[in-house]
């Protein structure tokens, strides 16, 4: 999967989602030091279409791989309106300015304005735009490529891929979890649908003080008991992202309230003003692109105010639910707002952590965002840096009614400072995926998990992506089409979603008198039945053995990983993988010896067979032997 600067370049391609009416660039000049060669785009087109290497490209045969062929001809589709806004974001924000600096280092004769000209030249088309189509649409007749810079960036990208694969090997080779004590026969099955008849009510709660309308879905039944469950979606999603989970929990007698955040839901993303709109805070037309003023740098994709408004949405909804619990004829005594289990995905995970006691602290984030490495830039960095537009650098958004957290692929980074998550003392279940390129597991989940102070569980999904836990029937199709955020097939993610249903229910029920009956589902061995080859899972209460000392988890938070950081990281992971292989062989040998005792065979060797003189000597013990 693409990540970092290459992910954003791919996103740039996808954001156009258009095809040029007439090619502008006809060739590419490749420079390596003083050496240069001009390559026709027609030759690249022939290679992309057939895989054959034309004579003019023979020098570059080692670089013309199948992967490059697929990248040149692969089509990327994305809603044009969304793509236009994201491209504007790249061209206007500090993170985008750094990406443009990187593109200029790769292509010295490519001006930032050329990207705008390309946008003006292209028009909507039925098929998605290819990387080759972008090259052909560039205004310069010849696009110049600096191979040294390109190879440096490609090397770092390749090292990131190698690190991700090595991490997956380490986790996959870990021994299968065993029950610490023999598990009793379960009296309840949290993984199957409950017997309660579920009703879903749709409400819109109007917060006049913030001029904000908050849609909510309430799932409840006549058998309601236990804590109230509140669900918060991620960026660009809606309150139905976890609909399957809400229905499952409600079928077991819990009341569930799914909240939709109006400033960062899918509707807000699709209704963003264009760059030319007065409300878009566009810079003056004669302002150089690199001279970004504070107003021009503000993010429109994710308004900074969402980092304050999202937790406040939850607090406001809980205040309103308290009143409904007292005065509503149908919902009276069904909304236990004194004991709230919070479930959040991605930006919803940030929301829950902020409500559980982690104060928003941007003092470390500012220096980090000013020195972003575009090659390693992940969408999580882009999103968290949007918070710098807030007029405050510190905010305590805690709500003591939150007594539990379930956070899947949470966005954390430096939003809470370097140790802010140590203030989260409520029991927490955190889910992370090894193939999550939106909120990478090392910086966004594993390191934050180590800081949590309360009882905690870590569900690691090998092969899991950012959207693996989403409801297939309610997944935003635009998000699933973004290149670095693909959705896995429904059949692949079904076991994961079933396990998440059961483990979330069991986790919530630990706050009730039925805790013991559900505790077995939180044992590390319970995940074995739901693991598959495609998505293998581990449930632990600590960071997986061997990763606690992983250098990536201990690098300085306010510095991004460079080329030099990958070597110790890779060596650590590869050494751990070899060690695990050796230990696996040892375990197999011990198991074999325990279950299959070696057979005993008596072997008579010729020189040990007693002879006749020896028998004679035995009859005369006092006779000396020669």
TrEMBL record:
The DUF1400 domain, residue ranges: 24-146
UniProt keyword annotation of Lipid metabolism present: yes
Q: Which residues form the signal peptide?
A: 1-24
GO BP terms, alphabetized:
lipid catabolic process
Coiled coil (UniProt feature):
none
UniProt keyword annotation of Lipid metabolism present: yes
Highest rank taxon of the organism: Bacteria
Q: Which InterPro entries match?
A: AB_hydrolase_fold, DUF1400
Extract the Gene3D superfamilies matched here: alpha/beta hydrolase
> Which UniProt keyword terms apply here?
Hydrolase, Lipid degradation, Lipid metabolism, Signal
Q: Which GO terms describe its molecular function?
A: 1-alkyl-2-acetylglycerophosphocholine esterase activity
**The protein's name:** Dienelactone hydrolase
């Amino acid at each position: 999967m693409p990540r970092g600067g290459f992910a954003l370049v791919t996103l740039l391609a996808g954001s156009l989602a258009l095809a040029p009416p007439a090619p502008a660039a006809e060739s590419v000049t490749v420079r390596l030091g003083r050496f240069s060669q001009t390559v026709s785009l027609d030759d690249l087109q022939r290679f992309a279409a057939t895989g054959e290497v034309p004579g003019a490209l023979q020098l570059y045969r080692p670089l013309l791989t199948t992967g490059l062929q697929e990248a040149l001809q692969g089509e990327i589709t994305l809603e044009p309106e969304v793509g236009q806004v994201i491209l504007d974001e790249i061209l206007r924000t500090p993170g985008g300015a750094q990406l443009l600096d990187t593109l200029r280092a790769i292509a010295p004769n490519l001006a930032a304005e050329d990207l705008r000209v390309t946008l003006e030249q292209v028009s909507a088309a039925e098929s998605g735009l290819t990387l080759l189509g972008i090259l052909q649409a560039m205004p310069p007749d010849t696009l110049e490529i600096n191979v040294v810079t390109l190879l440096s960036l490609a090397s770092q990208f390749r090292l990131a891929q190698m690190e991700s694969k090595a991490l997956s090997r380490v986790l996959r080779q870990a021994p299968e979890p065993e029950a610490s004590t023999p598990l009793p026969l379960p009296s309840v099955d949290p993984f199957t649908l409950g017997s309660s008849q579920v009703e879903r009510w749709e409400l819109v709660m109007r917060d006049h003080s913030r001029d904000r309308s908050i849609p909510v879905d309430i799932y409840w039944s006549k058998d309601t008991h236990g804590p109230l469950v509140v669900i918060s979606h991620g960026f660009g999603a809606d309150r139905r992202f976890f609909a399957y989970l809400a229905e499952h929990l409600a079928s077991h007698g819990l009341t569930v309230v799914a909240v939709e955040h109006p400033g960062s839901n899918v509707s807000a993303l699709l209704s963003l003003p264009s760059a030319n709109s007065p409300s878009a805070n566009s810079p003056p037309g004669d302002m150089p692109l690199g001279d970004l003023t504070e107003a021009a740098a503000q993010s429109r994709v994710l308004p900074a105010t969402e980092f304050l408004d999202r937790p406040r949405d939850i607090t406001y909804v809980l205040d309103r639910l308290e009143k409904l619990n007292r005065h509503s004829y149908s919902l009276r005594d069904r909304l236990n707002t004194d004991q709230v289990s919070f479930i959040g995905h991605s930006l919803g995970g940030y929301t829950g952590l902020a409500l559980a006691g982690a104060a928003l602290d941007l003092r470390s984030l500012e220096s980090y965002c000013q020195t972003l490495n575009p090659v390693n830039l992940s969408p999580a960095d882009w999103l968290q840096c949007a918070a710098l537009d807030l007029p405050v650098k510190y905010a305590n958004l805690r709500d003591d009614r939150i007594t539990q957290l379930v956070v899947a692929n949470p966005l954390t980074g430096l939003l809470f400072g370097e140790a802010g998550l140590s203030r989260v003392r409520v029991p927490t279940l955190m889910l992370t995926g090894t193939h999550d390129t939106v909120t990478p597991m090392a910086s966004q989940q594993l390191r934050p998990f180590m800081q949590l102070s309360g009882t905690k569980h870590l569900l690691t999904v090998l092969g899991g992506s950012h959207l693996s836990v989403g409801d297939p029937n309610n997944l935003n199709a635009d998000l699933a089409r973004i290149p670095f955020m693909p959705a896995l097939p429904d059949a692949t993610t079904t076991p994961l979603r079933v396990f998440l249903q059961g483990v979330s229910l069991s986790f919530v029920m630990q706050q009730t008198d039925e805790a013991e009956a559900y505790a077995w589902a939180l044992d590390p061995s319970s995940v074995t039945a739901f693991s598959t080859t495609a998505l293998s899972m581990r449930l632990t209460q600590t960071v997986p053995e061997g990763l606690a000392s992983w250098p990536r988890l201990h690098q300085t938070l306010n510095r991004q990983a460079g080329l030099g950081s990958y070597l110790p990281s890779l060596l650590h992971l590869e050494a751990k993988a070899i060690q695990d292989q050796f230990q696996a062989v040892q375990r197999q040998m011990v198991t074999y010896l325990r279950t299959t005792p070696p057979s005993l065979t008596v072997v008579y060797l010729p020189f040990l067979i007693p002879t006749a003189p020896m028998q004679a000597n035995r009859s005369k013990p006092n006779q000396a032997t020669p």
